[in-house]
Amino acid sequence: MHSERAPLALKIAAFAGLAFLHLPIVLIFVYAFTTEDRSYQWPPPGLTLKWFGVTWNRPDVWASLGLSLKVASVSTVIAIVLGTLCAAAVSRAKFFGRESISLLVILPIALPGIITGISLRSAFNLGDIPFSTLTIVLGHATFCIVVVYNNAVARFRRLSGSLVEASADLGANSFQTFRHVILPNISTALLAGGMLAFALSFDEVIVTTFTAGQQQTLPIWMLEELVRPRQRPVTNVVAMVVVLVTFLPILGAYYLTRGGTETAGVGK
Question: What parts of the sequence cross the membrane (predicted)?
Answer without folding.
Answer: 12-33, 71-91, 103-123, 129-149, 237-256
